[in-house]
Write a structure and sequence with these properties.
- The chain is of the alpha/beta class.
- It has three domains: 3-161, Rossmann fold (3-Layer(aba) Sandwich), CATH 3.40.50.1010; 168-251, no CATH class; 263-478, P-loop containing nucleotide triphosphate hydrolases (Rossmann fold, 3-Layer(aba) Sandwich), CATH 3.40.50.300.
- It is built from 14 helices and 19 strands.
- It has helices at 3-7, 28-33, 50-59, 65-81, 122-135, 147-155, 184-193, 265-274, 292-306, 333-351, 367-376, 408-415, 444-451, 470-478; strands spanning 23-26, 45-49, 90-91, 103-107, 140-143, 160-161, 177-182, 196-197, 206-209, 212-215, 223-228, 231-240, 246-249, 281-286, 312-317, 380-384, 396-400, 423-428, 458-463.
- 41% of the residues are buried.
């Protein structure tokens, strides 16, 4: 039995021995990533080196997410302290199926360190605790989100893992659409009847997996590209609506959305979700030039300035990562944000050309003047995610760009801020992650895509085709 099976879903896949309690030594970055990670290891022993407690104390001061997570973790440890002596190990919760409950222990020892760990600060002291347990022959796994720490620990022979909780399979990440080869009659039926029963697709949705033939299910708000098996030029596009057992046809609008027309099937899907008032959460992933941010902004400006369905358009980006203050940049808040929000300004300036600018005075004003006017009257708001926590945001079309640099905990924080009547759009490229503790499987955007799959209020599209320029498309394909 693996440690994943013993500890419960998502805790990791470290090689614990069946029926034997394992010591999981947690690095500081794991607790800062998710303070609840203390309780993810079920009937096993969680070991917190004293150096980790000292680092939590250093991080606890401030108003950013790292400080909040540090304080939350310290509160959890203090609550455990009241149940027993942490240096001896405190039991928490109830054991599963009659097994012993897990323990959480603070290791206050200063074990003898091998030469490779003699120098250095807290990282080497933390690894030394895991190494000492391993040297004594006790089953141990070192858990860290720091790749260098994992490499160093592994080099010492200590079983080592990333924190696997809240990870998804990036190779099989939900794309939001599927292509099915069908008979031409079904495509004609879709458009003639304006709907198509899902059962009609049953013979075409079988797939082989592990030697077994299974039926591929279509999730709520998932798109289906229907291709005529006999005629490649004959095709159709449909979407399964939530709480229904049929598909409805999706067609590209001939009228631009704030000056933007869909250039391919994926962009047609994205606009269909962005403009659907029944959806409250839309996630868009894809590479450079796919149109994620531009389409989201165009839909938001259309809904706010033309249809007036929302009070304002709020656009936010993480300040690498979310929660880091912007105070070290010069100038007022708006001037500080300009450095981080320039990609958003570029897209806004494109959309605020005369073909899409609201108001009768558009022809007589420059793009910069129109943008400044929208920012001045409060209907367009550019914000750092640092300022989102603690707020309730009702009746807003909200876009979070570069969401792949957020943790699952941070994405949960953002989505929980959405008030009544708010629509939230998360965009990003999961292959371009700047946060050193995240990857394609553990970032908040991938996590939300997979966890919100099939939810009636949510929709997703993975956009693979670049439309920025011919050169950008070639770069995406060849470089």
């Amino acid at each position: 039995m693996t440690a994943r099976a013993q500890r419960g879903p998502g805790a990791g896949s470290a090689p614990a021995t069946a029926g034997r309690v394992t010591n999981f030594v947690l690095d500081t970055n794991v607790l800062l990533h998710n303070p609840e990670s203390l309780f993810y290891f079920k009937e096993h022993n969680v070991v917190i080196p004293l150096a980790v407690v000292e680092e939590l104390d250093r991080f606890k001061r401030g108003n950013d997410d790292l400080a909040r997570n540090a304080r939350q973790c310290i509160r959890r440890l203090d609550a455990l302290r009241k149940k027993g002596r942490l240096n001896e190990g405190v039991r928490w919760g109830n054991g599963r199926n009659g097994s012993a409950a897990g323990t959480i222990r603070i290791d206050t020892t200063e074990p003898e360190r091998p030469a490779i760990l003699k120098d250095g600060g807290a990282d080497n002291r933390i690894i030394a605790v895991a190494y000492e347990l391993h040297r004594r022959g006790e089953p141990v796994v070192f858990i860290s989100k720091d790749m260098n720490a994992r490499i160093k620990s592994d080099a010492l022979g200590v079983p080592t893992e990333d924190f696997e909780a809240q990870k998804v399979d990036a190779d099989r990440l939900y794309t939001g659409h599927v292509t099915v080869d069908v008979g031409g009659a079904l495509i004609d039926e879709l458009y003639d009847q304006r709907m198509l029963p899902l059962e009609s697709l049953a013979p075409f949705l079988t797939e082989e997996e592990d030697g077994e033939t299974r039926r591929r299910e279509i999730s709520a708000n998932e798109f289906v590209v229907l291709r005529d098996a006999q005629d490649e030029s004959h095709s159709g596009l449909a979407r399964r609506l939530a709480d229904t057992d049929h598909l409805i046809p999706v067609t590209a609008s001939r009228r631009p959305t704030f000056g933007v027309l869909a250039r391919n099937t994926e962009q047609t899907m994205a606009l269909d979700l962005l403009l659907d008032e029944d959806l409250r959460l839309v996630t868009l992933t894809g590479g450079p030039g796919a149109g994620k941010t531009l389409l989201a902004l165009a839909a938001g400006m259309h809904k706010v300035f033309k249809e007036e369905r929302y009070d304002k358009l709020l656009v936010a980006r993480p300040i690498m990562p979310m929660g880091r203050d912007i105070g070290y940049l010069p100038g007022e808040k708006e001037e500080k944000l300009a450095a981080w929000m320039q990609p958003i300004f570029d897209n806004l300036e494109y959309l605020l050309s005369t073909r899409g600018a609201p108001g009768q005075e558009a022809q007589s004003r420059t793009v910069e003047q129109r943008l400044e006017a929208l920012l001045a009257d409060g209907r367009l708001v550019l914000e750092a995610l640092t300022y989102i926590r603690g707020r309730s945001i009702p009746h807003v079309f909200m876009i979070v760009d570069e969401a792949q640099n957020l943790t699952p905990h941070e994405v949960k924080t953002i989505i929980s801020r959405a008030g009544e009547g708010t629509k939230l759009v998360l965009t990003g490229d999961i292959e371009q992650i700047d946060n050193p503790y995240l990857d394609m499987s553990s970032n908040g955007l991938s996590y939300s895509v997979e966890r919100m799959k099939g939810v009636g209020l949510a929709g997703h599209v993975t956009m693979r085709k670049s439309e920025r320029s011919e050169l950008a498309s070639l770069a995406a394909q060849r470089l």
